[in-house]
Structure formats: structure tokens, C-alpha cells
Design a protein that fits this description.
about 450 residues; alpha/beta; four-stranded mixed beta sheet; about 30% helix; globular; binds shikimate-3-phosphate
């Protein structure tokens, strides 16, 4: 293994915001690391907290770019969001609605969840809300939320024949409907549920498969009337009946999507180490990647199972494993949707490789994640095949030294960083600052686990 040339490692407290080009060296990671609060729950804690009308205490909120976009958006909609940073690096404070018509266009930055969920909030308030975002977000579809909102009698406009942001919404009194969603998307479902909270009766949203149910659980935690049922044919049915919400503290546990990078790092490591991530959200609509890893014979254990605000939480320990192969398809894709890039690394080192199908939704994330995953692996000399609805990574491969473009996608950047830990030399990652969307402390935590890197630019 080559030695590290002189470079300027960033200080422990620095974040990745200004790191454009980082070089990561092979290393053995081990130890215990706490990850930031779950991104999905953090968005919802702020938005649902704002819909209560009295002050809601929040804690464990992720201090990341995407969640900051939600906080900023809500402030511009008249909500008092008071957050400060206690010693553990997360954000704690209070949220106080109501939500009102914003005085200006609302910038959701890089965050699809902010934009699509706020569309549902905006549908239920009088006035005009215009939601937009950065170049990546303005390439992501909004017709999927315009369709249900228009069935609910809400007027919306969007660019590119109604398909892309900016998205303008004339809110008011949504009509209660039964909406049949063509996609199993928690963002679409949540948009309808949040509009439904202000509708004139019970709204139902039926999706082809179950998706993350955080909006439903958190609404119930706040006294909301929500019923979620998984039907015999596998479809998911959610009913929301409008009612006044009541304040209750919301504590956000660690983000499993963030933890997945360290868990996969441990599982693919060549030498015998363990990585423990305490207090991680283990809602099964989010831990599909653990199920895939276990089906590949990975050593991943959950301990100290507990309930935090209606969500299951546990400590997770992962160890190097002799991985077999796996195929991921159908509803299992939804439960692992954000972890399909990092799972490619498990496929790469496994005996039989990893096949992913039915995952065309990967193409409408922060980047086209099917192509970006295959390109990132290719840049490191790893063979992978792009398919219309997924990818195949043959097993028995190790990454080589190389240069990866993050493609404006935090999860691609972090996947490349974890690949670097087992590569045959350093891996350069360009556009690394995108990691700030979900995990500004990634490099600090990489170092805490024994990783080595230098900031080039
Ligand atoms: C999210 C839902 C998922 C996921 C995204 C966060 C959420 O998107 O990919 O990162 O918080 O509701 P879709 O619901 O569009 O699949």
C-alpha cells in the first residue's frame, strides 16, 4: 500500500461543504460511530411540527444541507424554526407554525423531499407557493405530485409542460379523494397525506407497493388520524382524516441510509474489524439493504431494540463477511431504494454478484443513479452492466485506484469513498461537496474510524 503524500487534511470540525476534490486512501475502518439524524424524519419533524400550530420540541434533527433547505423554506412560509447545535452535532429546538403564503419563491436546494412534501403542505394553505431548487432538483419530476393535487382541486403549474420545477401551487381547501398512485413513492404518498390533512373529508392514497411510512407514524404521534393497510395484493392503502394535531416532542434517531456506508465498509473489508453504529432507525421500510446484505451472508447484528416516538431503533454492528450473491427486485427495491448504489460494492466483492431489477426509480434521484453507479464502478476498473431498470455487478472484483466524478450526487460520492477503503491505491473523488446534502461530517467520521484522506482542492 502506498504512503500518504503531504496534504492538508481538513480539521476535525470542518465539514465537506468546500471540499471539491478529495483523495481517499485504502485503510481498515473500525470502531463505533454515531450518524446524523435520519433525513426523512428530520424533514417531517420540521414540516409536521409546523402544521401543529403550537410549539413542538424537536431533537436529533440532521444538520445537513437538505434539512437546512426545509428549515429555510418553512421560515420563508412564516414558521418559527429555532434550532441550535448541541454537542452531539445534531440540531435541537422548537418549531412553531402556522404555515403561511411565502413572500417569495421558495428554494428547496438539492432536496426532492423538501419540494414534494412542501407541495402537499402548500396545497392546504391559502395563497400562491412557488417551489424551486438547484440544477439537479430542477431536472427531477414533479408531475407525480401535480396529478394527485389536481384531482384534489388544487391548481398547479410547472415548467416543461408541467413536468419539472419550478412548481407553482395555488393552495386553499383540497378536496378529499381516493388517489391511485402509479408509483410506490413515499414522497408522492406524503404529499397527498399532507394535503389530505387539510381536505374536506377522508383522503385515501393507494400505492402499488408499500413505501417508508414515516409521515403516517409521525402524524399518529402528533394525534393525527391515519390508517395504513397493506392489501392482499401487496398494494398499500393510507387513509387520512383531517383533525387538529397536538404538540408532542419529536426525537429523530440515526439515519440508516447514512449508516449503510459504514455497514457496507465493514462487510466488504478484507481484515477482521467491526463497525458499530448506535441508535439507528430500523423501520423495515428503510432497512431493505440490511435484508439484502443478510441474504448475501453478511454479518450484521441489531441489538438494544427500542421505540423512539413510534419508530423502531437499534444499535447495528457489521463485520467482514464472505458474501454470496443476491438479486433485488419488486417491492424489495422500494425498501432499499437509496442504498442501491452502496450495495453495488457488496455485489462487487461477493461470490456471485448482485442483480438489481425493477429499480427504474433510481434514474430520477439526485442523479441518474443507475448510470452514475455503473460509471463510478467503471472508473475504478470494476465491471458493471447498466440495464434499463437496474444494474448487474459480477462478483469477485476489487476496485483499482482511479478518479470518480460524484455527478452532483452525495450517495455516489460516499459510495466511491467506501470503495476507496478497499482499493489497490488512492481514489480521487471530484465534486465531493455534494456530500453536505446528507452528511457534512462524513470525512471527520471517516477519519474517526481510521480512514485516511487528503483534501486536494
Ligand atoms: C424519501 C423517499 C424516497 C427516497 C428519498 C427520501 C422520503 O423517494 O428516495 O431519498 O423522505 O420520503 P421516493 O419516495 O420518491 O421514492
Amino acid at each position: 500500500m502506498s504512503s500518504i503524500p503531504s496534504g492538508q487534511p481538513i480539521e476535525a470540525d470542518d465539514t465537506v461543504d468546500k471540499v471539491h476534490h478529495v483523495r481517499i486512501w485504502p485503510s481498515t475502518l473500525s470502531g463505533t460511530i454515531r450518524v446524523p439524524g435520519d433525513k426523512s424524519l428530520s424533514h417531517r419533524a420540521l414540516m409536521l411540527g409546523a402544521m401543529v400550530g403550537t410549539e413542538v420540541p424537536v431533537s436529533g434533527v440532521a444538520n445537513s444541507g437538505d434539512v437546512a433547505a426545509t428549515a429555510r423554506a418553512l421560515r420563508s412560509m412564516g414558521v418559527k424554526v429555532d434550532l441550535e447545535r448541541p454537542s452531539d452535532g445534531s440540531l435541537s429546538g422548537t418549531v412553531l407554525g402556522p404555515v403561511r403564503e411565502p413572500a417569495d419563491v421558495v428554494d428547496c436546494g438539492n432536496s426532492g423531499t423538501s419540494l414534494r412534501l412542501l407541495a402537499g403542505v402548500a396545497a392546504g394553505i391559502a395563497g400562491l407557493t412557488v417551489l424551486t431548487g438547484d440544477a439537479s432538483l430542477r431536472r427531477r419530476p414533479v408531475d407525480r405530485v401535480r396529478a394527485p393535487l389536481s384531482e384534489m382541486g388544487i391548481t398547479t403549474w410547472a415548467r416543461n409542460d408541467g413536468a419539472l420545477p419550478p412548481l407553482a401551487i395555488v393552495g386553499g381547501q383540497p378536496r378529499a379523494v381516493e388517489y391511485l398512485s402509479p408509483v410506490a413513492s413515499a414522497q408522492v404518498k406524503s404529499c397527498v397525506v399532507l394535503a389530505g390533512l387539510r381536505a374536506d373529508g377522508t383522503t385515501t392514497v393507494i400505492s402499488p407497493a408499500p413505501s417508508r411510512d414515516h409521515t403516517e407514524r409521525m402524524l399518529r404521534h402528533l394525534g393525527g388520524r391515519v390508517v395504513r393497510t397493506i392489501m392482499e395484493d401487496g398494494a398499500e392503502r393510507v387513509e387520512i382524516t383531517p383533525c387538529e394535531l397536538r404538540a408532542a416532542p419529536i426525537d429523530v434517531p440515526g439515519d440508516p441510509s447514512t449508516a449503510s456506508f459504514w455497514i457496507v465498509a465493514a462487510v466488504i473489508a478484507a481484515t477482521s474489524v467491526a463497525i458499530t453504529v448506535p441508535a439507528v432507525l430500523v423501520n423495515t421500510t428503510r432497512t431493505g439493504f440490511l435484508a439484502v446484505l443478510r441474504s448475501m451472508n453478511a454479518s450484521v447484528e441489531q441489538a438494544e431494540a427500542r421505540d423512539v416516538g413510534g419508530e423502531p431503533v437499534a444499535d447495528i454492528t457489521a463485520r467482514p463477511s464472505s458474501l454470496t450473491g443476491a438479486s433485488v427486485s419488486g417491492p424489495a427495491v422500494v425498501d432499499a431504494i437509496d442504498e442501491l448504489p452502496i450495495l453495488a460494492l457488496a455485489g462487487m466483492v461477493s461470490r456471485e454478484g448482485l442483480d438489481v431489477t425493477d429499480a427504474q426509480e433510481m434514474r430520477v434521484k439526485e442523479s441518474d443513479r443507475i448510470r452514475a453507479t455503473v460509471d463510478a464502478l467503471g472508473a475504478l476498473g470494476v465491471t458493471a452492466e447498466e440495464r434499463p431498470d437496474g444494474y448487474r455487478v459480477p462478483g469477485g472484483q476489487r476496485p483499482r485506484s482511479g478518479v470518480v466524478d460524484a455527478n452532483g450526487d452525495h450517495r455516489i460520492a460516499m459510495t466511491a469513498a467506501i470503495a476507496a477503503t478497499i482499493a489497490d491505491g488512492p481514489v480521487d473523488i471530484m465534486g465531493f461537496s455534494t456530500v453536505a446534502s446528507s452528511y457534512p461530517g462524513f470525512l471527520r467520521d471517516l477519519r474517526a474510524l481510521g480512514g485516511r484522506y487528503e483534501v486536494i482542492a
